[in-house]
Prior knowledge:
mainly alpha
Amino acid sequence: MEDEPVCYTMDDFHVAMSAFDKAVCEACAVSNFTGSRYAPYKGYSSHIFTRMCIHSVGLISALPKTRWAKRDYESWDFSLIAPHVRALMEGYLLFFYLSEMPISEDEWYVKLNVMHLNDCTRRIRLHQNIRCAEDEASFREQQVELQKRLQSAEFFNELPSKLQKLLLTGKALMIPSREDLLKKLDVDIGDFNAFYDLVSNYTHILPISYYRNEANGRGSGVQNRTDLSYIVHSLLKATNWLSVSTERMVELFPDAAKVRKGKKSKFTLGPKENTKNQK
């Protein structure tokens, strides 16, 4: 995506926000409906989907002119939604990776333990940094056990040796690379990576997010062409990621289709007109 985005209008914003509103409502309703179930790969997929819903609610609640939050002012700064957009991009890939039916129990066993090892490795680093030696030692024991599990799995031993070494470090959350997943999903790799880099720059305080700030304009929070266009572009993409993921959830749990009713979908937490317990 170029630094200067396609120029969108306020009409485009309202259309895009309405479409995303519908997608969020349906996703939250499906998540509520399927949340208490457990089935191996489907269950883990539903956890990722729930996190996608949480970030989608955060995104739409941060938007100006949204019905999801009441406030005394409007901020049009793109950085308010960039972290949620970034999380949706990551969640979209992880969700489809985990929700794919495994070719064997052994493949699922390896997928699961690669994820466990990544989590364990991150916890080791966390407890190192807070100097909690006892917990760090406990997680290091778990790390060794998880590495042994992977090394004993036939599916793991059939992977390329270079990939095996990477996975055993615990640095990878998934077996395939992001590029491989994007190819599988038929997503343009360049476009995805460029947009991911853009939202990352606005998630963190990096030069792209402030070099072109303008007094009472871009980056100031007041309505301006650039932030408006970034927001609309993000909503269009986020609507697609969330809607496609909701479709996959319905494939996994077919009876959830009945709760998809657009902006009239019912779920626990949300605008008053959508809550299940309304009279």
